[in-house]
Each structure stands twice: as C-alpha cells, then as structure tokens.
Amino acid sequence: MANVSRNDTALMANAIRALAMDAVQQANSGHPGAPMGMAEIAVALWGRHLKHNPADPHWADRDRFVLSNGHGSMLLYALLHLSGYDLAMSELRNFRQLHSLTPGHPEVDVTPGVETTTGPLGQGLTNAVGMALAEKLLAHEFNRPGHAVVDHRTYVFLGDGCLMEGISHEACALAGAWKLNKLVALYDDNGISIDGKVQPWYIDDVPKRFAAYGWNVIGPIDGHDVDAVDAALKSAQTSATKPTMIVCRTVIGKGSPNRGGTAKAHGEALGAEEIKLTREALGWTSEPFVIPEAAYAAWDAKAAGATAQAGWEAAFAAYKAAHPELAAEFTRRMAGELPAGFAKTAADAVIAMHEKAETVASRKASQIVLEILTKALPEMLGGSADLTGSNLTNTSSTPALRFDDCASTMPACPTAAATSTTACASSAWPRS
Ligand SMILES: Cc1ncc(C[n+]2csc(CCOP(=O)(O)OP(=O)(O)O)c2C)c(N)n1
Ligand SMILES: [Mg+2]
Questions:
Q1: What is the pairing mode between strands 196-197 and 192-193?
Q2: Which helix (H) or strand (E) holds 403?
Q3: Using one digit for the tens of pLDDT, what is the confidence trace for 20-78?
Q4: What is the CA radius of gyration of the chain?
Q5: DSSP E strands: which ranges in 195-334?
Q6: Which one-letter DSSP state was computed for residue 203?
Q7: Is 34 in the pocket of ligand 1 (CB under 6 A)?
Q8: Helices 362-376 and 342-356, interaxial angle, to 10°?
C-alpha cells in the first residue's frame, strides 16, 4: 500500500465508512447512513479544497465547515481524526459516551475543529449563512488593495431534513439577497429520511427553490463521483455574486449490501453480520478502529495546513506593517476581546441614565443603550423582524445591510481591487 496518493479516493472514502459503521456499532447507537453516503463528497471537499490547519482550528482565515445534518457526526469525527486534528482514535472508540470528545451530535468547544453545534435540522445551514455573512462584512471592512487578509469560504453539508425545516428558507433567502458568493452548500440528496422515502411528503423542487432565492445551483450530480464533486466545487468557487447549492445524488449507507439505500441505514447500527458483509463488499480488511497507514497518509492535512497558515501569517504581517490600526482592530475582534475603555463607556452610560431617570418605553430604553453600545462596538450586528420603527433596533451607527454589485455601485470599494470574486456592500456599509 506504499505511495498512495491523495487520489486514492476509494481508500479515503472507505476509511470514513469503516470508522462510521464501527463506531456506531460499538456505541450501538448513532447514524451510519449519512457518513457512508457522503464519503466521496467529503473526499472531494476535505481532500482537495478545504483550507484548514489541523494544528490550529482557530486560525482566522480558515475555511469554515459545517455539518448541518449533525446526526451524521461520525463523518465529521472521522474527518477530523484522519486529517490530523487532536482527536485520538480512543475518542472515536468512545463515540456517544459521557465525557468523550465525540458526542452524538457535534458540539462547538467540545471537539477541536467543530465550528458550531448542529443536530437540530436546518440550524447548521443557517449558522453557515451567518458565517458567510461575517466573512463578507469582515472582508469589506478590513481588506485593502493588495491585502486580502479575510478571504475564506464557508462550506456546509446538509440533508433532506435541513431543507424541510422552515428556517432553511428564511436563512437561504437572505443568503441569496446578500449575495454570499463564498457560501457553498452540498446537499446529500439521497431521497431518504427517518420515515423512509421522502416522497411523497417532501416533493420540493430543490434546484428551482434555490434558483428562486438567487443561488447558483449545480447538479444534480453523482455524489459518489469524487471528480464530479471536485469539478462542481471548482465551479462554485467562480461564482461572483451568488451562493452555490450543489445537489449531490447519493445512496444512504452506501457500501452496505442490505441496508444501503434504505431508511434502516439512517439511525441504527448495521449489526455484526451486515458489517461483515459491508467489509467484504468494500474490500476493507482492517479490524475495527484500525486505519491503514496509506489512508492516514492520503488524508493527512497537517503539512498543507501549516504551509497555508504560514502564508497567511506572512501576508498578515505585511498588512500590519501597511495598516497597523486596522491590523490591531482585526486582531482584537478575532480574539473576541472588548475594545479598550469599553467597561468605562458602559459604566458611564449606566450612571448617566440613572441620573437622568427618564421615564421611557422599554423599547426606547433599549434603543438608548444600543446607540451607545453600537458606537463603541463596531462588530455588533442586530436585526429587526421588519419592525424597525416599532422595536427601535436602529441606531445612528448601524445602517441596514444592503449588498449591491460593487463594480457598478461602489467603485471605491477596497476589496474590489483585492479579489475579483469578493462582492461587497453598498454605501450603507461600512458604518460611519
Ligand atoms: C428540527 C429537527 N427536527 C427533527 C429532528 C429529528 N431528526 C433527526 S435526523 C432526521 C431525518 C433527517 O433526514 P435526512 O436529513 O434526509 O438525513 P439522512 O436520513 O439522509 O441521513 C430527523 C427528522 C431533528 N434532529 N431536528
Ligand atoms: Mg436524506
């Protein structure tokens, strides 16, 4: 098995399948179907495109990856383990056990490399929209000609269930309106969920639905063809103004001779006999929780990740030399620290309001506080459910987000010069 290249896609995909079915079997609970069905999609994205460094899951300009179909958590845990994150095989053996780093559904701040908690269907997709929005706003605010220090993508895997949830409509419609072109969704279109075939109760025409939201829709493609997914990802990366939805036709539980393609693969262990048959069908001879060295070598993202991050650190050093104040502000934001003097600003505001002892409606009191806080905290974003004049969420430092085509409406946009694919905000942004 020497000299296996990154192109040995079957080995890479089957390593995921083996880990998923064996961990679910060991726990006697969990969901083997989605990881086994999305294995090739994962090979294409994680093996060929994702910009990340397993040694530093918090590197600011990493691509974001969200597993919105969080029940398929073993897919994410397998990917983190295989690509070199600090997630030992013993944690995979302990899948779904109390205090392990591998809870039933991914949880942020528990497992290194998990960007956000998922499990409630639709939520991950929605958070991914938020992450893509954050990238776009940060890029617009901080990038300068020749210095694209914020330039990453947000990738999200999702299944039928995420699309059934109403929240996916609201968030994805906004993603289209906001022209979040660096958001790429990969839909596990397997036609199956817990209750069986999703037809006839789920009959949305997903490609038409997303096209109507203003998305770039690719497919349906064969989700088990790594090169087809790879090509779709490359195409998605050229989308200048639209988020991309790649519809990947897959077989749930792919590889399992008797459970594949059925709802039985969704959320229960395959069982010892079926696992034996699956091993034979895949030609997978390793024992449970043993991964061939060649598969580790093919998946290892540590060296490429270190190189990518080092390149970014050098670019950030040049940015810092050219724009020290912006660099300091960016560093503060990424560290999640409050601005210097913020505590005093807040305390002074409280004292002033207390002394004034004004009698106002609670929503007006809220606006008075927001006025002070938004001035001091430029990263603060909020929303109003089409009730701005009533709930008073507007302040003088927070104009509404409006994204137009920079080339035509905003010639002075700094990011336009930095990256051709980075759309930017209209003159309502940045805030004055
Ligand atoms: C909001 C919400 N409702 C219901 C569930 C329960 N649930 C977990 S997985 C699932 C079915 C998901 O189907 P799909 O996304 O097609 O996953 P697949 O079976 O293809 O792996 C449901 C209904 C949930 N996790 N979240
Ligand atoms: Mg499904």
A1: antiparallel
A2: strand 403-404
A3: 999 999 999 999 999 999 999 999 999 999 999 999 999 999 999 999 999 999 999 99
A4: 23
A5: 196-197, 216-222, 244-249
A6: -
A7: yes
A8: 150
Instruction: Quote the DSSP letter at residue 144.
Output: B
pLDDT digits (tens, 9 = 90+) for 90-100: 999 999 999 99
Count the residues in the chain: 432
Candidates 244, 245, 248, 215; CA nearest to 229 is 248
Give the pairing type, strands 216-222 and 244-249: parallel
The CA-based diameter of the chain, rounded to the nearest angstrom, is: 78
- CA torsion sign, 389 to 392 to 398 to 403? negative
Query: Residue 404: beta bridge partners?
Result: 424
Residue nearest to ligand 1 atom 25, measured at CA: 120
Ligand 1, atom nearest to 122 Cα? 1
For ligand 1, say whether the CB of 69 is within 6 Å of any of its atoms.
yes
Query: pTM, whole model, 2 decimals?
Result: 0.93
- Cα(121) to centroid of ligand 2, in Å? 11
Ligand 1 within 6 A of CB of 248: no
Report the atom number in ligand 1 closest to the C-alpha of 266. Answer: 19
């949830």: which residue's tokens?
A: 165
Contact 299, 45 (CB under 8 A): no
Q: How far is CA 368 from the centre of its chain?
A: 35
From the alpha carbon of 105, which atom of ligand 1 is closest? 25
Alpha-carbon gap, residue 229 to 33, rounded angstroms: 19
> What is the Cα–Cα distance from 409 to 339, expressed in whole angstroms?
32
Taking alpha carbons only, the member of 180, 291, 292 closest to residue 243 is: 180
3-state helix, strand, coil in the chain (%, to 5): 45, 10, 45
